């Protein structure tokens, strides 16, 4: 197992390097960089991206005609543009900038945001609790619902209960998370029907003045809809995984032997089958968490106005805040690769019979 872990760790750096190279290369061809953003703001044009959707054709043509490097820079002194380039590091060739960025990352220096005057690390620390809250609660609730439901479906396999719950699960899996989130807002957050839950944020404005039990209630009250919206797809997948795992175990010989010895169905189910069937479900917890953490954070945080990492990444991409984009991309990529290794270790921990080295051979 040690050799397998070393091989996986050895692949982390090349994988991260490939991710960074691809994304850095793509940004060289995407219009509307940070300098263009500032030029647009200085000239009162608002968002520079409007110039690439049909609204800024005249400014772009004027920029080209005047020989400027940046669309819409006509009328601005060259010294101002040069100062911006030097401040953002764009006075260096792309290859040199990429090498300098990697060298800084090796020293855990992710730089400062272009437009927030805050270090990327501080931004990530500030936004991380919101995303972890959504990911952790969604994963826990998905497990608490999926395991009992999956076991019940396995025991009642082929019954009417199994049929109608399967239909419900398929519908839940087919509903896009963002559409379900909007539906929850419209129905339960004052959209058109009921105003039972708050529209935005993780806490109320008077959170500091509340007692400890009121703070707990206020916190749960605020996260109810976002967590429910981000749980729906994970719940469907885990339920079917639990059911199939139990069905595989129920058909094995040791179950028939336990029944032949006169053990009760409950003893067979929870004393023998449960322990073996849950191995793959429990071992997959890190992977499920990171999947919910990454896939649902952007949409859910944006819809419910939660200030988390997903929303931070979206705003950084719109503003072309490259230090935030590449810094969060590096951190997320490293986190995802490490969690993948931890998931494999979890499988071996809960079931020592699993041997990844022999499978690779």
Automatic annotation (TrEMBL):
Gene Ontology CC annotations of this record: plasma membrane
Q: How does it sit in the membrane?
A: Multi-pass membrane protein
One GO biological-process annotation of the entry reads: microcin transport
Q: Give its localization.
A: Cell inner membrane; Cell membrane
Q: Where is the ABC transmembrane type-1 domain?
A: 128-347
Q: What CDD domains does the annotation carry?
A: TM_PBP2
Q: Which of UniProt's keywords are assigned here? A: Cell inner membrane, Cell membrane, Membrane, Transmembrane, Transmembrane helix, Transport
The portions of this protein that span the membrane are 134-155, 167-194, 219-242, 277-304, 324-350
Q: Which SUPFAM superfamilies match?
A: MetI-like
Q: Which family does it belong to?
A: Belongs to the binding-protein-dependent transport system permease family.
* PANTHER family referenced in this protein's UniProt entry, alphabetically: INNER MEMBRANE ABC TRANSPORTER (PTHR30465), INNER MEMBRANE ABC TRANSPORTER PERMEASE PROTEIN YEJB (PTHR30465:SF66)
Question: Mind telling me what this protein is named?
Answer: Microcin C ABC transporter permease YejB
Q: Which organism is it from?
A: Pseudooceanicola albus
């Amino acid at each position: 197992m040690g050799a397998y872990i070393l091989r996986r760790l050895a692949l982390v750096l090349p994988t991260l390097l490939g991710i960074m190279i691809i994304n850095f290369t793509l940004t060289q061809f995407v219009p509307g960089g940070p300098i263009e953003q500032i030029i647009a703001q200085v000239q009162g044009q608002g968002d520079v991206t409007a110039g690439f959707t049909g609204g800024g054709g005249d400014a772009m043509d004027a920029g080209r005609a005047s020989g400027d490097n940046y669309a819409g820079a006509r009328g601005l002194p060259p010294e101002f543009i040069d100062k911006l380039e030097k401040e953002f590091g764009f006075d260096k060739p792309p290859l040199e900038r990429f090498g300098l960025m990697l060298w800084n990352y090796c020293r855990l220096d992710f730089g400062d945001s272009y437009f927030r005057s805050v270090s990327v690390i501080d931004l990530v620390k500030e936004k991380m609790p919101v995303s972890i809250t959504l990911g952790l609660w969604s994963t826990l609730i998905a497990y608490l619902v999926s395991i009992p439901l999956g076991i019940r479906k396995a025991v009642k396999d082929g019954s009417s209960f199994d049929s109608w719950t399967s239909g419900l699960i398929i519908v839940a899996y087919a509903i896009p998370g963002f559409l379900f989130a909007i539906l929850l807002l419209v129905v339960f957050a004052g959209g058109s029907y009921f105003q039972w839950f708050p529209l935005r944020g993780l806490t109320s404005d008077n959170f500091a003045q509340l007692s400890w039990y009121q703070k707990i209630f206020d916190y749960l009250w605020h996260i109810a809809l976002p967590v429910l919206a981000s749980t729906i797809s994970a719940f469907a997948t885990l339920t079917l995984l639990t059911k199939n795992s139990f069905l595989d175990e129920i058909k094995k010989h040791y179950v028939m032997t336990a029944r032949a010895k006169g053990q009760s169905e409950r003893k067979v189910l929870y004393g023998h089958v449960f322990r073996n069937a849950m191995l793959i479900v429990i071992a997959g917890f890190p992977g499920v968490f990171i999947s919910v953490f990454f896939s649902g954070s952007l949409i859910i945080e944006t819809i419910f106005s939660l200030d988390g990492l997903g929303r931070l990444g979206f705003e950084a991409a719109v503003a072309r805040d490259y230090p935030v984009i590449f810094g969060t991309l590096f951190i997320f990529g490293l986190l995802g690769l490490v969690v993948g290794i931890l998931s494999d270790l979890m499988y071996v921990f809960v079931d020592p019979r699993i041997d990844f080295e022999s499978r690779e051979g």
